[in-house]
Request: fold
Amino acid sequence: MGASKSRESSRQEGGENAGAIVALAAAAIAGLAAVVLVVARLLSGSSSSGGEKKTMKAPGRNNQRIKRDDFERDPASYFKNLRANSQYKEYMY
Reply:
């Protein structure tokens, strides 16, 4: 009878070890998924939610902001339109 009890106890210990290994593996997978999610958000290039565009202070205009992409796409056109504006003429002279 002593031999059968030791076999049962080793089976129970093996079952407990297997449960601990499964729990550890599940935690590792969850951690890896969290890291992948964070890296994906960082690499997406958007730091704010909703897909908002970056803005900048509008050159030659007080307290106004414009979308940076629009300005960088055609700055000459921006300044041409700014000079055509009568407020800019007053601002410059």
Residues 2-43 form the longest helix (42 residues). The CA atoms of residues 8 and 47 lie 57 Å apart. The mean pLDDT is 78.
